[in-house]
Each structure stands twice: as C-alpha cells, then as structure tokens.
Write a structure and sequence with these properties.
By secondary structure, this protein is an alpha+beta fold. The protein contains twelve helices and eleven strands. A hairpin with a 2-residue loop joins strand 2 and strand 3. The chain is globular and about 70 Å long.
C-alpha cells in the first residue's frame, strides 16, 4: 500500500508540474527519467510584465512540437540559468549544453527540446519569462539565438542581476518590481542587439538604461579601489568621460556623489556588524576606498547626522 501511495503522489506531482508549465509555455510534453520519484517546484516573482521563477526539478525530458505550437502559443521568450546541475536545450537546429555559467534562450513559437539534469538527482535554476512584444526585434531574429555565456559582458550583468533579485525579493517594494522588470528586459535586449548586430532596433532609452546598469555594476565591484575615478570608470565601460558624466546627470547625481554614497553605505553597514567590532573605524573606511580619516568622518556625519563612532556605539547593547 505504501508503494502505491508513493506512486500516486509522484503522479500527482508530475501532473501538477505539467499544468504549471503549460500555463506558462502552452502545450508541452514532459517525460521524467524516474516517474515514481519525480518531484518539481517553482516560485515566481512578478516584475511587471516579466516573471522570474526559481525552480527545482528531477531529471526529465521536455519538448514542444509544431503541433503543440499550433494548439496554443503564448508568444513568450524564456531565459534559463541553471544554478545546480546540467541542462541541454535544442532549438532551431542548435544543440546547447548548459552549465551554471551559461544562459539558454528560446521562444515558444518554435519547436524545442530540453534535457534536465542528465547526471544529477535534481536541477536548480532560474527562469525569466518575457512577452515577445517587449523587444523591438522580429521574432525570427530572436529565434536564431539559443544561448550565451553568463560569465562576461552583458551576460555577467544579467546573471548578477537575476541572482540578486531572487536572493531577497522581499527587499523590493511593489513600486520597484516593474522597474526591475524593465531593467532586466533592457539588459537582455542589449545583449540580443549585440548578438544580432542590430543595434538600430534598440531605442535610445533602452541602451542608456543598460549602460547605466553596467556603469553601476563596475563601480560597485571597485569601491574598495581608492583610485576609482571617472577616467577608470569610463574606460572600463568603453565610453568617454563626458558621456559618463551625462549618464549620471540623467539620474540626478554625479559620478563623485554616487561613488561616495555607495562607499558610505558599505561603511555604515560594516560599522555595526558584530563580526567587525574589533576592526578600527579607519580600517573599515580604508577598505571601502576612503584614504583620509578626517574626510571620511566629515562625509559620514553629513550623510547620517552623526560620527562613525557614534553610529558604531549605537549598535552596542549596554551592559546590565
């Protein structure tokens, strides 16, 4: 009786998973490697018109045939990043084995086949789903692409961006979510344009937002470098210093102000970190690029209304 119950539960899980996938992608076929032990789960975060899902699934094979496409096509593009395990996708006569350093990209209007977790017990990954109409490219052009690396260029920005979103979605307000979806779409559109050599399709605003994400990411990675300056930032992002200043002005700030604000935020956090209690304030400031203790103290007080020492003291529990 116990085995029969387990089989019935596995069958129910498989049917529930099929129904969830069909709602997102239209008719699909799913064949688990071990139906009696199949399990899968997904949780979605809605970012306006974009959905980002964190999923886990037992090894299986999925496919979408021309007949299924004729039955129903939601006309969406899916971006898949495996975070644990392996995945292989085939679309448009292209076979693409994926690792955690790769993205798969495929659309529901074209047949595809997917093999999940051939050599592992469970695959974990992130899937972002975009309506076609968010992109200024003809669908047939997007269909020529099947994937791209997630360890360099726009791919690395995309990977970092989606990982941050799913790591702590509760930190974002409802008003933040559509903006996050727009930024994610802009990054993907910029990557597609580069891959297709079709930058003429990209609206100026989309390109500017993608460049800003790239600029901010570089600044964040290099806050500890006391030599971080507009020349370094501009060169790393292949733009002129004048363009860099223009991009930041469009955000209502300046390069110096943005760098200072991000450094102060890190210091503000570290000063009340229990693990860093014994670390001198000057060392914390220096670790985030402040080489002059007096300048750091003045900047901190202007930003937060108290000195670094007062802020550190505020986190200490008085002895009874």
């Amino acid at each position: 009786m116990g085995d029969a119950n387990k089989k019935a539960e596995a069958a129910e899980r498989l049917e529930a998973w099929r129904a969830q996938v069909v709602r997102a992608l239209g008719p699909v076929e799913i064949n688990p490697r071990d139906p009696e032990r199949f399990d899968a789960d997904a949780s979605a975060i809605l970012l306006g018109n974009v959905a980002v899902s964190v999923l886990t699934a037992s090894p299986c094979q999925g496919r979408r045939t021309p007949k299924m496409i004729r039955q129903y096509d939601p006309e969406v593009l899916q971006l898949v990043l495996p975070t644990r395990g392996n995945l292989a996708v085939s679309q448009s006569h292209t076979d693409l084995p994926l690792r955690s350093t790769d993205f798969a990209l495929y659309g529901t209007s074209y047949p595809w086949e997917m093999h999940i977790g051939a050599n592992v017990t469970t695959l974990s990954g992130i899937v972002a789903t975009f309506p076609y109409n968010l992109f200024p490219f003809p669908v047939e052009k997007i269909a020529r692409l099947s994937g791209f690396p997630a360890y360099a260029g726009i791919g690395a920005l995309l990977r970092d961006f989606v990982l941050r979103i799913v790591a702590n979605p509760a930190q974002y307000s409802p008003a933040d979510l559509p903006r996050l979806g727009m930024t994610l779409t802009d990054l993907l559109a910029t990557h597609i344009a580069g891959s297709l050599d079709s930058h003429t399709y990209i609206p100026l605003e989309t390109h500017q937002r993608a460049v800003l994400v790239q600029i901010y990411a570089f600044i964040e990675r290099n806050l500890a470098n006391s030599n971080l300056d507009p020349e370094m930032i501009a060169a790393a992002n292949s733009i002129s210093v004048r363009s860099l200043h223009r991009y930041l002005r469009s955000e209502g700030t300046t390069v110096a102000a943005w760098v200072r604000e991000q450094r102060l935020r890190r210091c503000h956090r570290d000063l009340v970190d229990p693990a860093l209690t014994a670390r001198p304030i000057s060392a914390i400031a220096r670790s985030w690029g402040f080489t002059d203790p007096a300048h750091f103290s003045r900047a901190f007080r202007r930003a937060y209304g108290r000195t670094p020492q007062e802020h550190r003291n505020s986190s200490r529990i008085p002895a009874e």
